Amino acid sequence: MRVGVLTGGGDCPGLNAVIRAVVRKGVSVHGFEFVGYRDGWKGPLEGLTMELGIEQCRGILPRGGTILGSSRTNPFTVDGGVEQIKDNLARDGVDALVAIGGEDTLGVATKLADLGVNVVGVPKTIDNDLSGTDYTFGFDTAVNIATEAIDRLHTTAESHHRVLVVEVMGRHAGWIALHSGLAGGANIVLIPEQPFDIDEVCALVEARFESQYSPIIVVSEGAVPKSGTEELTSGELDAFGHVRLGGIGDRLARQIEERTGKEARSVVLGHIQRGGTPTAFDRWLATRLGLQAADAVAEGDFGTMMALHGTTVTRIPLLEGTGELKLVSPEEYAEAQVFFG
Amino acid sequence: MRVGVLTGGGDCPGLNAVIRAVVRKGVSVHGFEFVGYRDGWKGPLEGLTMELGIEQCRGILPRGGTILGSSRTNPFTVDGGVEQIKDNLARDGVDALVAIGGEDTLGVATKLADLGVNVVGVPKTIDNDLSGTDYTFGFDTAVNIATEAIDRLHTTAESHHRVLVVEVMGRHAGWIALHSGLAGGANIVLIPEQPFDIDEVCALVEARFESQYSPIIVVSEGAVPKSGTEELTSGELDAFGHVRLGGIGDRLARQIEERTGKEARSVVLGHIQRGGTPTAFDRWLATRLGLQAADAVAEGDFGTMMALHGTTVTRIPLLEGTGELKLVSPEEYAEAQVFFG
Amino acid sequence: MRVGVLTGGGDCPGLNAVIRAVVRKGVSVHGFEFVGYRDGWKGPLEGLTMELGIEQCRGILPRGGTILGSSRTNPFTVDGGVEQIKDNLARDGVDALVAIGGEDTLGVATKLADLGVNVVGVPKTIDNDLSGTDYTFGFDTAVNIATEAIDRLHTTAESHHRVLVVEVMGRHAGWIALHSGLAGGANIVLIPEQPFDIDEVCALVEARFESQYSPIIVVSEGAVPKSGTEELTSGELDAFGHVRLGGIGDRLARQIEERTGKEARSVVLGHIQRGGTPTAFDRWLATRLGLQAADAVAEGDFGTMMALHGTTVTRIPLLEGTGELKLVSPEEYAEAQVFFG
Amino acid sequence: MRVGVLTGGGDCPGLNAVIRAVVRKGVSVHGFEFVGYRDGWKGPLEGLTMELGIEQCRGILPRGGTILGSSRTNPFTVDGGVEQIKDNLARDGVDALVAIGGEDTLGVATKLADLGVNVVGVPKTIDNDLSGTDYTFGFDTAVNIATEAIDRLHTTAESHHRVLVVEVMGRHAGWIALHSGLAGGANIVLIPEQPFDIDEVCALVEARFESQYSPIIVVSEGAVPKSGTEELTSGELDAFGHVRLGGIGDRLARQIEERTGKEARSVVLGHIQRGGTPTAFDRWLATRLGLQAADAVAEGDFGTMMALHGTTVTRIPLLEGTGELKLVSPEEYAEAQVFFG
């Protein structure tokens, strides 16, 4: 049996660990041959392949990024894209595909499965906002990097009278902000699910200073103010016409400075959170998802997504994982409030 | 309501995070007053108390160890110990106890609960061998420290022709060895649950060298050889007459050297694994267990142990957590074998 | 003999290590008594003191920040400031002062020494731009933090076709950018000493992409473009009317995006570089400077600044250290160019 | 001009950084061609070569180990070894050699230089015991790893009443023990240069406990007791008939337990100290030494060793670096004593 593997979307610590596990189990237990498809869905679409075997996977476990490369290519936006993919899989003698990616990549996998392509999915997003699984790999690494950053800021917050704002990743979901804010002992955490009121934020800042401590604020890149504070809304478009995310940390720091007269500084962790070596948890999770994906292919259990439930790695229908985003619930946000403000 | 808090057993990253969360939630939401009991059960037994409030908990979230101190004192081995505890709790006006500890500490809590003491338990062990909870805090920190050590050994293993043996913690359970061995890309993992055959280990070592790579072996301090290899069994007693654990890494390295003629070196991580700052996951888990414990006390839900199931923190009867050890199952060990040998 | 100790200016990993060393050597070898002055020169100016002895210094070696607090107060801008200081020192029975700080703090020390105050200085700046010493503590920590960040960005740069800009500290001197850029394998390093040409930068970016690699650019917060590129110049004032530094990383990323059409993202490390635990080198340097300062006081060798020359800690006249900034020379910048572009 | 490069002796973080810098400067500035010799002096002796150019050096800066491999082969112990080397260099058209290594590797280089071979040396040892240079790369990495380990042990030492012994590298010189002991706040540091008295050590241990703190002891693998304490002397031979070093940490812990009745535990960092990614300082130093070596070859300045003096990288005669070991002087050991005991 010949199996293709691809990785799509933004990079994420643990991608290489999944690839390695799929290949190791597939070759040594199931006797598969593998084809590596380059740059996400662009690979099977344009027939970009690379050799993929146990040798290519040597030493990649601790490495960030992906040896297969990645892209955001969507074959459904390309005329005859699906046919091209089917033709290329046939030409390459590929019987099944393992697609490793997030909402978009697995969304494509879901549709292709309906169209008869033998595909299994492995969920990937540092934002941890995919449904059907307790966690996605990459998230634990991002949270640890953000937490270490917050730890370092405490000494400055204590030695000077400054507001420190840390902008972390999270376009639609506040998981990284919530977990790193809780683990780092932040005073205010602002997430996309809960639009914030700048006046309330400034009131908390001033209250904190009155208790002789400087506040540390963690804000998701996708956090939005309640209506009526244009200074805080980016609206800016990037070179590709999409609204530019990020920048909220810097804008928030300036607003706080103007409104409270307290010095405020911002830190923007950006891509540091998604690069480099994965934590032990992410390597372990990515590896177990990969082993499970190899078994799913061997059993012909296609159209499934690997998922973590408790300490068990299991399979769910792809649609369950890609149907809707997993957001921070009001209850989960409320649970942490005892430490904030 | 006055609540006592104590920490017992070996130290573990996250203890201070639990204390901080119990106090923060207890004071600001439930209006509790707190009493800190020093040095585990020795505190309520001998009436050793310290002031415990939000002020005492400032800045302790990232710190290893425990501000309350710890001990292995067992009141049930002391004449009239239980009565002393009841008297001291009454004298201190303490209505309920939060006991944070492992098998022994919570075993005492279980018995005291049967004897009418209002106690709730928070599970703690870096070995992760307590039943009824997916994970215990401290384990993730230990696994990350062991994994970083293994990462560093790979370059030496590659540059020289040496066998490298890493001894990690785990007296009865191989969780740290299994997870760090998997995350670090070790070649052989030996755990207490699966007695090893030194000849098989040496055969794997030689096979590995034939494939031009040097082997990295992770061994739990409690790993034992199959009968008939006295050189590997410690048998040694420490200053207190207990069989001295540890030393297996060094003994294993020497045996491999003698039997294969290959240079072998050992690394003994020891207490490095249980000290210092907790990972983000352990801070998050410890904090959430502490919040839940404060609620359990407020609800009078005594005799319970806080536990993690998936992403939910819940409560189970104390006995479920302390009844029997959670060991690595043959299936879990087998799942990882594809990477070993 | 009673000795006062103060720390001034921005915080810097290693301040507590200096304090601990001065006190330890002073008490146990020279029999000094100590007075801690709070918040830099504000302390002796307003008579803000705290107890300072071996007990207060326990456990502070690995901690960032300063137990004495800090400020930017300059007694020479206060009417009768110098007299107030002399009066307070007399009132507190303080015979000598150890001033730990950067250009400003030691500049004040230099003038006070001329006015007959018994003062010795310990140099401190993460920017490493003080003359007369090979290195200042805090610098090694900042460089390591920036280097780890660059390490993590490489995998993203390789997996995606993105320009990554890292803004590091360095208002007047490019030491952090140069050392972290060299250690992290950056492709372009922009420092204050060498105004950059945005067209040249964009040309290097495009050349890098042609060789199939994505560029990583390290830029000092104080880096400035050659005249004629207003979009890159901040000009912005902060809440206190000073030109706001920083922001160059973000502006540079946007300019590159507009001019080359390549996606560009920025990371702003900000205060992460100056907080948290010091590296071993910074603890060792800070400790040795502190020991030397205690000896200088004991020998009555006032008006001196402790300095590192090679592996030797020695003393130089305060003026030599504070006279002029130590900048990156054209030769030092040129030496690294073989790796850039 | 064709230049050969080899790395000899134990591995050391920074070897790849040197190789990369020599090649980058040699190719792009001096127009050299390179030949990689495998496994130290074994390479030119047996004619083991590999391709070496800018492409082979991509991405190796942060990697531990050496892409050229290493060995302890000494051509002067091989009949006609020197002739073989000269013949192979001639056959490979190699005009000059860059030898990167420690005492042994550079000792060979020194003799070969006398015999007319065009060779320049780059000093390497994590033990930092080479003369003629302020520091050798790898040392800073080892000290940081040991210091982080000591940091983690403090919380355990505080929470329990235990003696913790950390064995670090250093066969003949105590630099790693002294610097990490100072940076980590250890209470006792034992180094090879100063034979220790077990009774004095036990007395310090008991004194420490009386002051309510648990002692942390850092011991070099080469530390030796004063005569008359056989239990502490290894004497053991390894599989190759050499006296086995190491083990002193474990033996010391047991002796302290027996003599003081206090629980004692040991940590043996071993090869963790010499593997994995280098610190920023080691990358910067290794890189600058490599750049200088390329220039030395271009200038025909053979028989020299690259060296760090203050912040300057310079050249000295090879013999100066390899003539005698750089040991910790009694004064340097005494300077740190104020923190010990």
From TrEMBL, chains A, B, C, D:
It comes from the Bacteria. Mg(2+) binds at residue 103. Belongs to the phosphofructokinase type A (PFKA) family. Mixed-substrate PFK group III subfamily. Diphosphate binds at residue 10. This is Pyrophosphate--fructose 6-phosphate 1-phosphotransferase. One of its GO terms (cellular component) is 6-phosphofructokinase complex. The gene is pfp. InterPro entries: ATP_PFK, ATP_PFK_prok-type, Phosphofructokinase_CS, Phosphofructokinase_dom, Phosphofructokinase_III, PKF_sf. It catalyses: beta-D-fructose 6-phosphate + diphosphate = beta-D-fructose 1,6-bisphosphate + phosphate + H(+). Pathway: Carbohydrate degradation; glycolysis; D-glyceraldehyde 3-phosphate and glycerone phosphate from D-glucose: step 3/4. GO terms for molecular function: 6-phosphofructokinase activity; AMP binding; ATP binding; diphosphate-fructose-6-phosphate 1-phosphotransferase activity; fructose-6-phosphate binding; identical protein binding; metal ion binding; monosaccharide binding. The active site is at residue 127. Coiled coil: none annotated. The record marks 124 as: Important for catalytic activity. It holds the Pfam family PFK. Residues 2-296 form the Phosphofructokinase domain. Transmembrane segments: none annotated. Substrate binds at residues 125-127, 162, 169-171, 221, 265, 271-274. HAMAP family: Phosphofructokinase_III. Its EC number is 2.7.1.90.
